[in-house]
Amino acid sequence: MSEAPRGASFNLGGVTLKQKLIWFLLTLAVTTQIAAADSELAYPPLLTPAVQEAKAARLAAELLSRFHYKAVPLDDALSGKMFDQYLKALDPEKLYFLQSDIDRLAVDRTRLDDAILTGDLRAPFEIFNLYERRAVDRMAYARSLLHKGFNFNSGETLMIDRKEQPWPSTEADSLDLWRKRVKNDWLRLKLAGHDDAAIAKVLDKRYDSATKRIGKITGADAFQAFMNAYTTAIEPHTNYLGPRAAENFDIAMRLSLVGIGAVLTDIDGYATIRELVAGGPASLSGQLQVGDRIVGVAQGTTSPMDDVVGWRLDDTVALIRGTVGSTVRLDILPADQGPDAPSKTVVLIRNTITMQNSAAKAKVYSVATGEGPRLIGVITLPTFYEDVDGLRKGDKDYRSAGRDVAKLLADLKAQKVDGVLMDLRNNGGGSLRESVGLTGLFLGKVPVVQTRNAKGDTAVEKNVNTGLAWDGPMGVLINRASASASEIFAAAIQDYGRGLIIGEPSFGKGTVQTVASLDQVAKNARPVFGELKMTIAQFFRVNGGTTQLRGVTPDIGLLPTGNDALFGESSYDNALPWTRIKAADYAPVGDIKAQLPRLLSWYESRVKRDRDYQSLLEDLAKARERRKNNVISLNEAARRKERAALETRLTAMLGSAGARAGGALADDGLQFNERKLSKDLAMEKTKDSVNDVLLNEAVSILSDSVALKEGKDQMAASALSTRPVVITALSTVPSKQ
């Protein structure tokens, strides 16, 4: 870690008498309100800070003030940002607090810095305690509505995203908001085929479970929420990890772990699949996809299903984890069938997820042209992995992304492919060393990326370890989830003019983080302080620009832009800005831009006739329209109509895809007997085909680029009849483990 010592000036002055008086009155008001309601509801005990938490907060503040890339003084200005982040973390949809609560709590807006500096954490804990009690109130009200039932014939609507809305001004406003939310929960289950008695039972259990989970929240949870409000107020990739969170982070960073191989995120109270780990049980099952929501988890084949809607994400993850070979059942709301679709049960056998399962893989695609088939090799790289232990021990056969890709390139060469496409979609990064070395496989020993630390010192990372492994036509396929090391690779290929960048703008994460153990700094014998993940440097391209915020812009974009605010670095309101430094000493090796006018013309001509591609664009447009409207109907007839329309579109899309996939296989002389496939399997196969529409087009674009390099002014034939067909599937590089 590059240190940038700075003189941290901490205000250690005491709290004034006036501050103590205001604090006493606020505490009295909150306590009185809670006591008045205690006769009706059983609230969890008030949470209080532990001694070690005050010490951990002070130590974290010292490290952040001295070593963070974006040094921000811990003062009243930062305290205001912490206050906003804290409320946003506790109540992002503004469902629990009232405006009157926010007005009362505003006295702490400029005091949270003092809470850390003086070690008096009562203020953030009082905010958390009020949040807990508001949550218990709302769950109790939600349960009280279930015996009444609802009328679904009115024209009522529910706002989907309330992040930009004001806080409810009165208790009545808040209760009406919750009435609509419960009504929507009821309608979803009704549309999924449940009767009223079953719906009331499911929802009562769900809201009761939520109340019980509130009662299990600990002071450590409250402290972590507050500390993350502090760290993310500085910069979005800086986080505090309490002892439990630090343990989970360590598990995620190991080369192997036991589970189902799915990365989850919380979206509107649902544990939602953000990523499927290649080679894991979830991915291999073919039954799950990114965006699926987990609504229930059960152990073994017969145990009852636990409803996990609204659960803390780490509790859901703990329920899904287990021993190798054990069975877990998941109740899933499919991502591509809307919120009212019936759920499905997916049975998985837990396994060890290893680096080998996420290794690079390759396939060869054949593209029909007027002069015969053209072969394009596609290497899919899920992450820039590296067996650090094997490298440290001197194992000559240690696994790494660069070494595996080099072997795959040799295999593709042997099959005489005409071009190579690196598929980095959903590759969130990994080892910087592997990113630099893998870039060298296509560029040789050249500068790849620049870094700048907190002092402002810059360094050029040059590939010195790997030689040129492929000098033929190549391209890189990226999407909004391609981040960090993926962006370093794609940016270098683009800056050198070495290959085509195809797809969507990438994530835009151009920063470097390190993890500091607060316990190691304090020389604690056991972990009590937790860890600090903080940003210490920034990446810059060899041309002097940065991937930060803007990401890598593709040479040929496959989807319309406009969703940047929903995902990526630009979705954070305090992300580091885009900036520029002096370019490195480098020289382009090609001129891809000269091909772009012709390639764009052929691409546009081809996709106009590709029904799968046009269906995808239509679905994206409808999704944007739904987000823009930001409301969902609570009328049963309207919702059934929307659901029927969605199912009709999906059936038509899968049907056309299946027909063309079958036709293409038949044209290639391969036997394809649909009667041997069940309807479900056929649907899954055609869904896979639809999901790969972007890969198919990227392969066609690279084929066109090859033609231009050969001096042939002829594009790949229409995707209508010549979707690239897999003719050879190369296996993963044999494991040495």
What does this structure look like?
The protein is built from 22 helices and 22 strands. With 737 residues, the protein is α+β, with helices and mostly antiparallel strands. The longest helix has 32 residues, at 636-667. Residues 1-39, 251-256, 656-690 and 718-737 have low confidence and may be disordered.
The strand line-up of the biggest sheet is 20-17-16-13-12-11-22
Detail the poorly predicted runs. Answer: 1-39, 251-256, 656-690, 718-737
What number is the mean pLDDT?
82
Strand content: 15-25%
The computed structural class is alpha+beta
Number of strands: 22
Overall 3D geometry? Answer: globular
Please bin the fraction of helical residues: 40-55%
What Rg, in angstroms, do the CA atoms define?
Answer: 28 Å
Query: What's the N-to-C terminus distance?
Result: 31 Å
Q: Sheet with the most strands?
A: 7 strands, mixed
Number of helices: 22
List keywords for this structure.
737 residues, alpha+beta, 7-stranded mixed β-sheet, 6-stranded antiparallel β-sheet, 22 helices, 42% helix, disordered N terminus, disordered C terminus
Any chance you could write out the topology, listing elements then pairs?
Elements: H1 17-37, H2 51-67, H3 76-90, H4 99-105, H5 112-118, H6 122-144, E1 157-159, H7 171-191, H8 196-215, H9 219-234, E2 239-241, H10 243-253, E3 256-259, E4 262-267, E5 270-276, H11 281-285, E6 293-299, E7 306-307, H12 313-320, E8 327-333, E9 344-349, E10 351-354, E11 361-367, E12 374-380, H13 388-393, H14 401-414, E13 419-423, H15 432-443, E14 447-453, E15 458-462, E16 474-478, H16 485-495, E17 500-503, E18 511-517, H17 518-522, E19 531-540, E20 556-557, H18 596-607, H19 611-629, E21 631-633, H20 636-667, H21 679-691, H22 693-709, E22 725-730
Parallel strand pairs: 12-13, 13-16, 16-17, 17-20
Antiparallel strand pairs: 1-21, 2-19, 3-10, 4-5, 5-6, 6-7, 6-8, 8-9, 11-12, 11-22, 14-15, 14-19, 18-19
